[in-house]
Amino acid sequence: MVPALCSCAITPMTDHPDDRSSPPGLVSLVGAGPGDPDLLTVKALRLIRAARVVVFDRLVSVEIMALAPPDAELIYAGKQTDAHHLPQHELNALLIELARSGRDVVRLKGGDPLVFGRGSEEALALAEAGVPFEIVPGISSASGCTTYAGIPLTHRGLAKGVRLVTGHWREGQALDYDWHLLADPDCTLVIYMGLTHLKEIARRMIEAGLATDTPAAAVENGTTPRQRRVIGTLGDLPDLVAMAGLRPPTLIIVGKVVSLAGSLDWYGTRSAEANTT
Predict the structure, then answer these.
(1) Are 54 and 133 in contact (CB under 8 A)?
(2) Closest by CA position to 113, among listed 129, 97, 133, 132
(3) Is-cis flag, bond preceding 249, omega within 30?
(4) Which of 80, 141, 143, 175 has the highest Cβ tally under 10 A?
(5) Does residue 82 surpass a pLDDT of 60?
(6) Which strands, in side-by-side order, build the sheet including 53-56?
(7) CA distances from 198 to 111, 201, 209, 250, 251 (A)
(8) pLDDT of residue 3
(9) Burial, 215: exposed, middle or buried (Cβ in 10 Å; 0-12, 13-18, 19+)?
(10) Would you call 18 a catalytic residue per the annotation?
(11) Which candidate in 18, 19, 36, 57 is catalytic?
């Protein structure tokens, strides 16, 4: 079943002869960006509009899926915590099978394919199978969602650098970071898929020495009309997020740059504010 995030109709795969004497099709691993179709690259838009087969993720927005031709074959391959519609090894095999049938395939992924998008895993599988592929970068969620929330990733005097981490390790493994390294007051920390473990992440970072009153934010469905934003501190963000009822996809941002969110909230008049300080 396709989540409500993407209501595009799914057509079943049709039988195509697997003619190994014919050259395989090209698989384009395309970054769809964080959701706003206006943030697509020119190349991504061109590929989507010309696509005949699209294999898409859960985080690809409804607005972007609507750009595919009405007769395109749409194959859902979404993933969420502990609920993979199509396991990664099966997805890799599917891309290879589709390409070997002689068809070009657009593999559409939210954000950038190579930033927590498993794009490199799929590219490796295609390379090992001898299937030609290309990778089309997209605006990452870290860049897009923070910008639409009025939060710069770096700012002179507030952040000297940026760290991107995932807040969810595969197969239920415990988060095992160097928390003292992450608890850097002069660096912006962006956490993907961190909603489930937000309370633990905040606790571990405070224990590692980051001040409880460090500005922190959570952005749900960033860059889309469904965007919601919670602004608080590292100490109170887990409770604020719970009260607001934020759901995935939600990006977590920790660092002094979050203090600029009020002044730089250019998108706020078009987004639903869940909670602010």
Answers:
(1) no
(2) 133
(3) yes
(4) 141
(5) no
(6) 73-76, 53-56, 105-109, 27-31, 133-136
(7) 21, 5, 17, 11, 11
(8) 39
(9) buried
(10) no
(11) 57
At residue 229, what are phi and psi to the nearest 5 degrees? Answer: -135, 135
Question: Does residue 146 contact residue 190 with C-beta atoms inside 8 Å?
Answer: yes
Q: What pLDDT, in 10s, does the model give residues 85-103?
A: 689 999 999 999 999 999 9
Q: Distance between CA 108 and CA 118 in Å, rounded?
A: 12
Q: Identify the three-state secondary structure at position 38.
A: helix
Phi, psi angles (nearest 5°) of residue 146: -65, -40
pLDDT level of residue 275 (50, 70, 90 thresholds): very low
pLDDT score recorded for residue 176: 86
Active site residue 57: yes
- Taking a C-beta distance cutoff of 8 angstroms, is the pair 256, 185 a contact? yes
Question: Radius of gyration over alpha carbons of the chain, in Å?
Answer: 20
Which run of H or E residues covers position 30? strand 27-31
Read off the amino acid at residue 167.
G
Secondary structure of residue 241 in the 3-state scheme: helix
Across 266-275, average pLDDT: 60
Check 79, 104, 236, 256 and give the catalytic one. Answer: 79
| Cα gap 8→65, rounded to integer Å | 7
Q: Is the dihedral of CA 71, 119, 47, 62 positive or negative?
A: positive
Whether the predicted pLDDT of 207 surpasses 50: yes
Tell me if 73 sits within 8 A of 56, measured CB to CB: no
Sheet containing 215-220, strands listed edge to edge, beginning at the edge strand earlier in sequence: 161-166, 187-192, 250-254, 215-220, 228-233
**Phi, psi (degrees; rounded to nearest 5) at 136:** -110, 110
Q: Which amino acid is at 243?
A: M
